[in-house]
């Protein structure tokens, strides 16, 4: 019997194409992995193993024909299945059509077997929804796989599937990629489809793609996306092949800027710094010029603009849900943090929100100018290694305060109290590096370059000018061949 877990997506597709293994054998192997491991990892919250459409997909001729796949349970609707989004409010509401992302993913030939766990409304950098329970890191189940694509990351890192759907509005591909030892690319704004019922997600901050164990799987999937006419944004055109780029060495030395300092002034763990310095040593050995200099963007304004987006989007989401469920959403319907963000969103003025969006454009221009001098910008992906499950829970006092204020609907008072800033710092102190690329629309990737002394993965983030995913994939493809690249097969747990 073939060793299913040793192959990436393209590797499995090649076996099927050459008839060395049947698509049904691959599908059955994936189902066994899910059934054997999900009881511990809680990565998959909905399975549909016998969907006739997906069984038929195994006979297609796409690049990933017959390859098992899991979608992320937010913004990746699968017709006839609930898009649970980490909340009990949506567990019984069925999608009436595939999202455009899922439709295009199906065209690659993948076999969709289920949907993965997410934090409620994908709002956290950990995946610990109260209603569905926490997803756990395959490297050590006592730790988080990150979020919001934590279920997808756990599924891929544990060998359930070689690739899984993900999206990234503030680091939700890169953070779990870093925590689980995976490759994770957030494409340029407008590169991937968002329709049919929407033209943007989180004002364009969020984009869909995948998490993978290999660089080439991510590149090959990126090649497949077609322009979505519903998309409010258009990425710069690329006429080449991303897959070809991922196996093409860089022959011209690059100028690369880096920093290990947190953009919001919080601490950065030594392990995360060490990951960056290991990458720098490799880059210099490859002939590239590496200079220590931080991006010319005010990190605290990035954080504030990011939370302004959070507030407004959560309030809008809950209001829209009221039409779908036919009643008002109450405090008891959602988690305390979600309710707090909802109240804060209702307290945000139009002037505040538009000023925040204006800053996005300013930051994007600053980074465009920065990339005139530096080809790439390198940082830790996260400021700290994975936290333990439950470590970042709100305290009883915090939950009690939110309940009191929520009952009185005093969002404005909460906004002025300083309590919000405390929670914001608590939320971003572990993950302050990823939000910049979401606001500016740049492509950014996490590379699995380090294991901590506790045996947990630690990622390195690399950002490029808008439209330059090919350069990122070239670099990733070269680094993947080095001994410093963390292989999931090293994973001691699964």
Automatic annotation (TrEMBL):
Gene3D superfamilies: Amidase signature (AS) domain (3.90.1300.10). It comes from the Bacteria. Residues 26-473 form the Amidase domain. One of its GO terms (molecular function) is catalytic activity. Transmembrane segments: none annotated. Pfam families: Amidase. Belongs to the amidase family. This is Amidase. It comes from Bacillus timonensis.
């Amino acid at each position: 019997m073939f060793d299913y877990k040793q192959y990436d997506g393209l590797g499995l597709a090649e076996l099927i194409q050459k008839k060395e293994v049947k698509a049904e054998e691959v599908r059955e192997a994936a189902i066994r992995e899910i059934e054997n491991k999900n009881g511990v990892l809680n990565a998959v919250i909905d399975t549909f193993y016998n969907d006739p459409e997906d069984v038929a997909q195994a006979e297609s001729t796409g690049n990933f024909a017959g390859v098992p796949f899991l979608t992320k349970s937010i913004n990746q609707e699968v017709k006839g299945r609930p898009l649970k989004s980490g909340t009990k409010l949506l567990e019984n509401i069925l999608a009436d059509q595939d999202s455009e992302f899922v439709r295009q993913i199906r065209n690659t030939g993948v076999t969709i077997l289920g949907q993965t766990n997410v934090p409620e409304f994908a709002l956290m950098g950990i995946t610990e929804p109260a209603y569905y329970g926490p997803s756990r890191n395959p490297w050590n189940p006592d730790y988080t796989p990150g979020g919001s694509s934590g279920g997808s990351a756990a599924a891929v890192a544990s060998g359930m599937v070689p690739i899984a759907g993900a999206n990234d509005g503030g680091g939700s591909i890169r953070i779990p990629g870093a925590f689980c030892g995976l490759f994770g690319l957030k494409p340029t704004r407008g590169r991937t489809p968002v329709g049919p019922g929407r033209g943007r997600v989180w004002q364009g901050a969020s984009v869909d793609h995948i998490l993978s164990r290999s660089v080439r799987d991510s590149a090959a999937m990126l090649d497949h996306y077609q322009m979505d006419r519903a998309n409010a944004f258009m990425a710069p055109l690329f006429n080449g092949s991303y897959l070809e780029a991922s196996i093409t060495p860089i022959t011209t030395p690059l100028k690369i800027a880096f920093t290990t300092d947190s953009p919001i002034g919080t601490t950065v763990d030594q392990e995360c710094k060490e990951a960056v310095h290991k990458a720098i040593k490799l880059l210099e050995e490859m002939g590239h010029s590496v200079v220590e200099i931080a991006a010319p963007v005010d990190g605290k304004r990035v954080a504030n603009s990011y939370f302004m987006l959070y507030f407004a989007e959560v309030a809008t989401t809950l209001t829209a849900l009221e039409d779908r469920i036919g009643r008002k959403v109450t405090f008891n319907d959602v988690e305390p943090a979600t309710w707090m963000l909802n109240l804060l969103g209702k307290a945000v003025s139009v002037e505040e929100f538009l000023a925040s969006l204006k800053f996005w454009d300013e930051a994007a221009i600053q980074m465009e100018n920065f990339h005139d001098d530096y080809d790439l910008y390198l940082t830790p992906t996260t400021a700290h290694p994975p936290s333990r499950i439950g470590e970042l829970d709100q305290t009883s006092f915090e939950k009690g305060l939110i309940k009191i204020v929520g009952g009185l609907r005093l969002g404005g008072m909460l906004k002025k109290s300083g309590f919000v800033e405390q929670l914001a710092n608590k939320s971003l102190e572990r993950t302050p590096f990823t939000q910049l690329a979401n606001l500016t629309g740049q492509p950014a990737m996490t590379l699995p370059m380090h294991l901590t002394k506790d045996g947990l993965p630690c990622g390195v983030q690399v950002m490029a000018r808008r439209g330059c995913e090919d350069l990122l994939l070239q670099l990733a493809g070269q680094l993947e061949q080095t001994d410093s690249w963390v292989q999931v097969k090293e994973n001691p747990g699964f």
